[in-house]
Structure formats: structure tokens, C-alpha cells
Amino acid sequence: MKALWIAALFAAPLAHAHITVAPAAAPAGAYQTLVFKVGHGCAGSATTGITVQLPEGVTAKPMPKPGWTITLAPREIAWRGGPLPDAYYDEFTLQARLPDAPGRLVFKVGQQCEKGRTDWADTTPESKTPAPVLEVTPSASPLHHH
Ligand SMILES: [Cu+2]
Questions:
Q1: How far apart are the CA of 18 and the centre of ligand 1, in A?
Q2: Are strands 90-97 and 117-120 parallel, antiparallel or unpaired?
Q3: For residue 108, how far is its CA from the centre of ligand 1 (angstroms)?
Q4: What's the 142 CA to ligand 1 centre distance in angstroms?
Q5: Does pLDDT of 133 surpass 50?
Q6: Contact 97, 56 (CB under 8 A)
Q7: Which residue has the higher pLDDT, 119 or 13?
Q8: In terms of Cα–Cα distance, which of 35, 27, 33, 14 is closest to 132?
Q9: What pLDDT, on a 0 to 100 scale, did the predictor assign at position 12?
Q10: Please, which residues have CB within 8 angstroms of residue 10's CB and are 6 or more apart in sequence?
């Protein structure tokens, strides 16, 4: 029993150390704040850039972040700056307009570091570098348009 408990204790930080998006689910057609959480650098090296690729049907505006410069491309939002040391945690925020249809949205994220880079782009959950995924749920209320 004790050995199992210790194994669980050591396994836990790895499970949430990847780049993830919060919330995990949001309603179709919503203007939703999405927070990309960066739990570590690239094999110990500090993070100097985060690039989020917007899935088809998603538009988004980045939240400015002191110490980071934003670059906007049609399907991509990038922050450059930091460096964010491997020992620290940070968040990168977007306001996204979600598609009107429910489904699984994959946000591929590129993490640039002082040494090397990590591409969080795999769509299989067992991957060591899975892409952040947002589940778009059916909308409960009538759509709100601007
Ligand atoms: Cu990780």
C-alpha cells in the first residue's frame, strides 16, 4: 500500500506538467476565455516563446502580457519574451469565439526555449507531448452575435 501511495505521489506532477488549456470544455458559439498553462520549459531550459495555432472555425484575441511581445497571424498567435525559467509556472490567455458546432478542438502549441523547443501537437492522449484539447459542448442558450 505504502509503495503505491508513493508511486502516485511522484506520478502526479507529470500528469499536469504539460501545456494544457483551461477550461477543458465550453459551449458552442461562446466568447470564451482560454488559459494556456505552461508548467515547465524544454528539458530544463527556460521558455522564450509560446505559439498557439487556432483550429478551424475559431477566432481569438490575445491578452497582453508584460514582458512578452505578441505577434498575430491569421491562424496563429505568438508571445515572445520571458525568459520563463523552468522552475516557474505561467499562463497565456486568449479570448476566443468558439465554433457554432460542438466537437473536439485541438490547439497545437509550439514552445520555444533558450535551448531547443517542444511541439505540443500530438492528438493521442498517451503521447508525451499532447496538444491541448477543448471540448465544445452543445450550446444551451440562443447564440449571441456582435
Ligand atoms: Cu509536461
A1: 3
A2: unpaired
A3: 14
A4: 38
A5: yes
A6: no
A7: 119
A8: 35
A9: 44
A10: none
Please report, for the chain, the start and end positions of each structural domain, with discontinuous segments joined by +: 16-134
Tens digit of each residue's pLDDT (9 = 90 or more) over 76-89 = 999 999 999 999 99
All residues with CB under 5 Å from ion ligand 1: 17-18
- Residue 98 CA, ligand 1 centroid: distance in Å: 26
**What span, in angstroms and rounded, lies between the C-alpha atoms of 39 and 31?**
25
Q: CATH number for the 16-134 domain, one of 1.10.1040.50, 2.60.40.2230, 3.40.50.150, 3.40.50.300? A: 2.60.40.2230
pLDDT higher for 11 or 21? 21
Split at pLDDT 50, 70, 90, the class of 145 is low
- State yes or no: cis peptide before 23, omega within 30 of 0: yes
Q: For strand 25-27 and strand 133-137, is the pairing parallel, antiparallel, or unpaired?
A: parallel
- Span from the CA of 20 to the centroid of ligand 1 (angstroms): 9
The answer to whether the CB of 30 falls within 8 A of the CB of 98 is: yes
pLDDT computed for residue 13 by the predictor: 45
